[in-house]
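@channel sequence for tomorrow's demo:
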Amino acid sequence: MLPLALGLVAYVAVFIAPVSLVSRRGDRYILPVYFAAGLLAALALCWLATWLKRHLPGLFNRFKVTAAGLVGLAVLLQAGAVLLYHPYYLAYYNPLLGGGASAPYWLNVGWGEGLDVAARYLNEVNPQNPPQVAAWYSNQFSPYYKG
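structure tokens (generated this afternoon):
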């Protein structure tokens, strides 16, 4: 298991290093890394379950902690974190890396989240004489704006 984990870590590092040096830091450039990162996470959970069973057998048997239980807990925690961003899922950034506060340093951020809310507000401001509006993401804005 260790050689596989080291190989995956090397793959992730070798792939991300050159991508992180260029000025265009879009998340789409590291998509091939996600599969390896998922495998690493699964290996870590399996290792943790094995370690718990070996070093804390009483705790392990008492609570029936299994690898599947740890994976289920991880999925629930992740789902809870993602649901906080509904319906703007692209506004989610990994909190272990600083979340949304540090995201602009690492990535190009912003895909037009919230433009639907802004358009609806502008529709209500003066429905008889709507103001002219310029929007950077017109494809995301125009379906909601009636002006």
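heads up for whoever presents: Helices lie at 2-21, 31-55, 57-63, 67-83, 99-106, 115-125, 138-141.
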